[in-house]
Amino acid sequence: MTRQFDLVVFDWDGTLMDSEAKIVRCMQAAAHDLQIPDPGVAAIRDIIGLGLSEAMQILFPGSSAGDQGQLVDRYRRHFLELDNTAMPLFPGVAAGLAQLADQGYMLAVATGKARRGLNRVLDETGMRHLFVTSRCADETLSKPHPQMLEEILDQTGVESGRALMVGDTVYDMQMAQNARIAGLGVSYGVHARERLLECGALACVDSFREVCAWVE
After folding, report:
1. Does the annotation mark 13 as catalytic?
2. Mean pLDDT, to the nearest integer, of 76-87?
3. Is the pLDDT of residue 1 over 90?
4. Which one of 13, 46, 168, 172 is the catalytic residue?
5. Average pLDDT of span 143-170
6. β-strand partners of 108
């Protein structure tokens, strides 16, 4: 069978790692630190995948730029230093990524995380060697702008038609469309299957094992 894709780009939070609970807790803690009203779990879940600056603008629209900057700083402090909420990889991720790499697929990451945070989880999971490149929200424009994917395509030399974006949010699917590459949604993250399909996902699968089967 002819291979359809040469490059598979993965979102991180909600696609490879189950970090939703920690993100929500740290965002709530940042708001509490500054005595700003908690935006609520549903609102926080909805912005997962965006860069922190963009997320703060949506969650705290009435706050000043200075307060939003402090919120970013407090969130990062909780996420990187203070909060110990577990963030396991989703079932099948470690073995599935290794299998795809062994089969000759180039793998990359496009994430709303900052570079410091991504480097930390790449090292903690021992998976850095599986990815040929990665892009973070503090290095490029945030999703759904296509810059992350465009830079990954430029670096790898892969044409847009030979690349696939895998993610759990509408921001991932919109970014893929904006970069003119295919998108595959996963239903086990933060955004519902219907939203992913409405945003152009070719399909939406229910586990990481199904991701690998779909790619292959």
Report:
1. yes
2. 95
3. no
4. 13
5. 98
6. 9, 133
